[in-house]
Structure formats: structure tokens, C-alpha cells
Design goal:
It is built from 17 helices and 27 strands. The chain is an alpha/beta fold. β10 (213-216), α8 (222-233) and β11 form a beta-alpha-beta unit. α2 (33-48) crosses α3, α2 (33-48) crosses α5 and α7 (200-208) packs across α13. The protein is globular. The structure holds alpha-D-glucose-1-phosphate-6-vanadate (VG1) and cobalt (II) ion (CO).
């Protein structure tokens, strides 16, 4: 077995600040592409992550999507050729994003590589992705992604081994050159941590006592986690986890847990005799959707921003948070329901740019212990990623302790804090130039917008969100246009950083409603006129040619 150095031409790898390299499978399948990206990463790390990977431990796994099996073998060869000391690899090449984060932290690894394009579709014509996480278990911060990007533009060769594939189908150890390869059960470490966070005795009583859960793994990575934790360890009926076999094409579905792509879960929760609680996770297991069937709150998905606020208000019921929360955080477009809870608890609530990496410093410094995003990501200081299965266990633990159905807990929360009606409209795959023009135009109008009346209320504040990290002072600018209204409503416009086709414009709307008699309204009814006004204000139709959003959630 020889180390070979293969020449490559420089390329534009992961754009700085994006959560991993996410592209069409076809791009990743080009000869030497994965190798060149991994070599760029390894070359960049000494400068920005405190040393080279030689002799160090890395965690490696992915969400099982098409090309996971090829890419992982390629990465193993490049890692071994670069002298990585130990590779901890999930059996079958599988690891959910939060489980990788757990392993990096618990095994004291130097970092980890996760193969996933998250909730994007898979298959030969779908998307693939490679994310790098640093030693705290969290996504690489911008100084790392920047260095990797720079290196990809000057790289001239990568190192690899001329050797056969390493079998990954069984737990065990192997050696490749100087590298120890440890194939582990992808679920075990994660499940053990969950047992320390939640009250498993109470959860067992709940799930054996007739409470019925439906967990839809969307044919993605959480299937094995859900089976082991809900069915084996907690005694939920077999079949609680549905679509629980990770498939390379996700069963031709789009593994995005929202009412559009998980419509069959919403439907299964709406029939007579439906389960008590429904949940789904995305491709790599970091997102969560929670669903109730009850007409009392309009039925369907519990909005992620509401879910985050409700978990914060009930955190003290969970063993892990017995002593309360030091502080919480939400991404900027997430509704301000969380802020109301933080106020009531007398703790700080931080507002960060979109993307999980911005929570890392606050979590590491102990300033916050719970955080989330409107895009169905919730998590805590137990890892440095969002965590889908954890969020479902959190809800179940709260339900078990309060002895109330989820819908009653939601309604009670709204009575106490008021309801923050919330919606997001996405315009996917629009022309990139048009998208830039749209945001640019809004940015230029920021000074003239205050005082304008929209939807019957006056715009009071208008800005382009900039964030200064309170721990390391780093600044992130141009994180989205925020419009604040005299009645407390808000509109946010920003461009997605995760799409692989053209640009995606996201618009977010929210309005607080204190009057409980109006909490039963649908979000569409409560926000319809604000949404129409927001589209008008940004001239969406004129600039993009679109009259309707692609996704409404
Ligand atoms: C989206 C979400 C954001 C999330 C990111 C990664 O980003 O809005 O909240 O952190 O996806 O999630 P954007 O830039 O497309 O809006 V995942 O499950 O893909 O790690
Ligand atoms: Co994800």
C-alpha cells in the first residue's frame, strides 16, 4: 500500500460561511473532487484549528444518502494518507449530525466530517454535501471555512492510498497505514447521552401506558436512532418509527420535515384514533417537526419558534435543566416567542444570525443552554448542533411530567404569553441576479422606509442585521433586512445560503396576539395581509417574475 500524490487543478470549494460544501451529486462525482476538498481542509487546518490532523482522531459518518458509501471510502484513504491517527466511523457509514457532535465531544476528537446535504433531496440527480465540525462538536466557524476555501483555490495535489475499500458493515477495528479505523455502533454513544438528559423511567411509563407516538424518519438517518431509543429502550410499540430504513434516495422523497414534505405525517395525525404525538426529522437528523392532531390549536405542526419557546418555559422539568437555564438564543428570523419566556424567567435572550455555528461560542461560554431556529432546529448545550431526536424526547418528557396532551401545553403557553403568529414564504430557485437586486434595493431604501404605512401600521425600524459575537468580537454583516412595525409586527427578508439552484429568497412574518379569543385563527388568516404587503414592498413579482412562494410554512 503506497501513499500517492495526485495532481489536481485548483477549484472553488465551500464558500466561506456556508454550512458545508453542498452541491449536486454529479459535481462530487468528478474525478478527484472529494479528494481535493478533503485535502484542502486538511491543508487549511494547521493555520486555523490549532494543528494538523496527523496523529489526531476524527469522527466520520453520513446520512446514508446516495454516494455516502463511495465518498466515505475516498475520505478514509485521503485521511490515512495524511496520517490521521484514528478514524471513528459509524457502522454502514452512518452517523446523524447530532450523533457526530456527541462523538467528537465525548471521544475528545480533533474534529469530524459529516456527509450530508441535510434536508435536500438525494439520489444520483440530487444533492450531496460534506461538513466539517471542529473540536467543540460544532460546525466550522467562518475563519475555518474561509481558510479551506482559500486553500481550494491554490491546491495542486492531494494524498491518497492505492488500497481497497475498508469494510464498514460490522463494528470492529482495522488499520490502514498509520491509521486506526474504529467502526462503531452509530447509535450507542448518542443514546447513552439521551439517558443522562431525560427521565427515561418517566418516558417508559408514558410510552408503555398507552401514549402513542409516530416518529417519521423520512427514510433518512434517524430511523436506527428512533428504533433503538423509542422502541427498544423506551418500550414504545414496534412500528412507532415509520420510514425507519435509511435509503440512498430517501424513498424518492424530500427529507425535509415540514408540512409539505411530511404531508403524510400531518394526515396520519388528523384521522380519528390518530397517535397522541407526531414527529419527523430531516436527512441528517438535526431538524425536528412536532405535530399534534388536536383541533384545539388548529391541528398540525407546532411552529418551530413556538416549540422552542415552550421547551424553554418547561426546561426545568427535564433532569438536565433541573437548575434552570443561564440564557437562551434564537436566530434572527425566529419569532420572538422565546424572548417573552426569557423575560419572564429573567434570563438573557441572544439574537444571532441564521446558522447553527453562531450559537457555538455562547454555548461554550455557558451564556446560554438552549437555542433554536425557525427552520425546525432546536438544541442545547449537550451538543453543538441542532438535534431532532433530542427535541422529540424533550417534548415527551414535558408531556410525561405535566400529564397533559401537547395541544393543551401549547394553548396554555399562548394564554400565558400571547401567541406569536408566524409564517415563512420561500421563493426557491429564482434567478441569482434578481435575488441580489431585490435585497440590494431594500438595502438602499432602509433609511426611507421608517414612517411608511404597510398593512395599516407604520414601519418604525428598518435595518440590515449585523451581529457582533459577544465572546470573540467577530462581526457578521448583511444577515437579513428587518422591518419592525408600530404594532410589534415584523417582516424579515434574507437569501438562503444552502440552496444548490439559483437563489432562494426567504420572507418571514410575525405578529403578536395577546387576545386569547383570537389564538384559534390560522397563521394564514392572521398574517395574510402582512405577507401580501411584504411581497408588494419588495416588488417580488416585478423583480423575480414570481407571484406565489414555492413553500409556505
Ligand atoms: C437553512 C435554515 C437555517 C439552517 C440551515 C442549515 O439555511 O434557514 O436556519 O441553519 O438551513 O440547516 P438557509 O441559509 O438556507 O436559510 V440543515 O438541517 O441544512 O443543517
Ligand atoms: Co439537517
Amino acid at each position: 500500500m503506497n501513499i500517492v500524490s495526485v495532481p489536481v487543478t485548483p477549484f472553488a470549494g465551500q464558500r466561506p460561511g456556508t454550512s458545508g460544501l453542498r452541491k449536486k451529486v454529479a459535481e462530487f462525482r468528478q474525478a478527484g473532487y472529494v479528494e481535493a476538498f478533503i485535502q484542502s481542509l486538511f491543508d487549511a487546518l494547521p493555520e486555523v484549528a490549532g494543528g494538523s490532523v496527523a496523529g489526531r482522531t476524527l469522527v466520520l459518518g453520513g446520512d446514508g444518502r446516495f454516494f455516502n458509501d463511495c465518498a466515505i471510502q475516498t475520505i478514509i484513504r485521503v485521511a490515512a494518507a495524511n496520517g490521521v491517527g484514528r478514524l471513528i466511523v459509524g457502522r454502514g457509514g452512518l452517523l446523524s449530525t447530532p450523533a457526530a457532535s456527541v462523538l467528537i465531544r465525548e471521544r475528545g476528537a480533533f474534529g469530524g466530517i459529516v456527509l450530508s446535504a441535510s434536508h435536500n433531496p438525494g439520489g444520483p440527480d440530487g444533492d450531496f454535501g460534506i461538513k466539517y465540525n471542529v473540536a467543540n462538536g460544532g460546525p466550522a466557524p467562518e475563519r475555518v471555512t474561509e481558510a479551506v476555501f482559500r486553500r481550494s483555490q491554490s491546491i495542486s495535489a492531494y494524498l491518497t492510498l492505492d488500497t481497497a475499500d475498508v469494510p464498514l458493515d460490522r463494528v470492529g477495528a482495522a488499520r490502514l497505514g498509520v491509521t486506526e479505523i474504529e467502526v462503531i455502533d452509530p447509535v450507542a454513544d448518542y443514546a447513552r447521552l439521551m439517558e443522562r438528559i431525560f427521565d427515561f423511567d418517566r418516558l417508559r411509563d408514558l410510552l408503555r401506558g398507552g401514549f402513542r407516538l409516530r416518529f417519521d424518519a423520512m427514510n433518512a438517518v434517524t430511523g436506527p436512532y428512533a428504533r433503538e431509543i423509542f422502541e427498544c429502550r423506551l418500550g414504545a410499540a414496534s412500528g412507532t418509527a415509520v420510514n425507519a430504513e435509511p435509503l440512498p434516495d430517501f424513498g424518492a422523497r424530500h427529507p425535509d420535515p415540514n408540512p409539505l414534505h411530511a404531508a403524510d405525517l400531518i394526515a396520519a395525525m388528523a384521522v380519528p384514533g390518530a397517535p397522541d404525538f407526531g414527529a419527523a426529522s430531516d436527512g441528517d437528523g438535526d431538524r425536528n417537526m412536532v405535530v399534534v392532531g388536536s383541533a384545539a390549536i388548529g391541528g398540525g405542526m407546532i411552529g418551530p419558534s413556538d416549540s422552542l419557546a415552550i421547551l424553554a418555559a418547561n426546561a426545568h422539568l427535564i433532569p438536565w435543566f433541573r437548575d434552570g437555564l443561564p440564557g437562551v438564543a434564537r436566530s434572527m428570523p425566529t419569532s420572538r416567542a422565546l424572548d417573552r419566556v426569557a423575560d419572564a424567567l429573567g434570563i438573557p435572550c441572544f439574537e444571532t444570525p441564521t446558522g447553527w455555528k453562531y450559537f457555538g461560542n455562547l454555548l461554550d461560554a455557558g451564556r446560554i443552554a438552549l437555542c433554536g431556529e425557525e427552520s425546525a432546529g432546536t438544541s442545547s448545550n449537550h451538543v453543538r448542533e441542532k438535534d431532532g431526536v433530542w427535541a422529540v424526547l424533550f417534548w415527551l418528557n414535558v408531556i410525561a411530567v405535566r400529564g397533559e396532551p401537547a395541544a393543551a401545553i401549547v394553548a396554555d403557553h399562548w394564554r400565558r404569553f400571547g401567541r406569536d403568529f408566524y409564517r415563512r414564504h420561500d421563493y426557491e430557485a429564482i434567478d441569482s441576479e434578481a435575488a441580489k437586486r431585490l435585497i440590494g434595493t431594500l438595502r438602499r431604501r432602509l433609511r426611507e422606509l421608517p414612517g411608511t404605512r404597510v398593512d395599516g401600521f407604520e414601519i418604525e425600524t428598518a435595518d440590515d442585521f449585523a451581529y457582533t459575537d459577544p465572546i470573540d468580537g467577530s462581526v457578521a454583516e448583511h444577515q437579513g433586512i428587518r422591518l419592525g412595525f408600530s404594532n410589534g409586527s415584523r417582516i424579515v427578508y434574507r437569501l438562503s445560503g444552502t440552496g444548490t439552484e439559483g437563489a432562494t429568497l426567504r420572507m418571514y412574518f410575525e405578529r403578536h396576539e395577546a387576545d386569547a379569543s383570537r389564538h384559534g385563527l390560522s397563521a394564514a388568516a392572521a398574517l395574510g395581509s402582512l405577507a401580501a404587503a411584504a411581497a408588494e414592498l419588495a416588488a417580488i413579482k416585478a423583480i423575480t417574475g414570481r407571484s406565489e412562494p414555492t413553500v409556505v410554512m
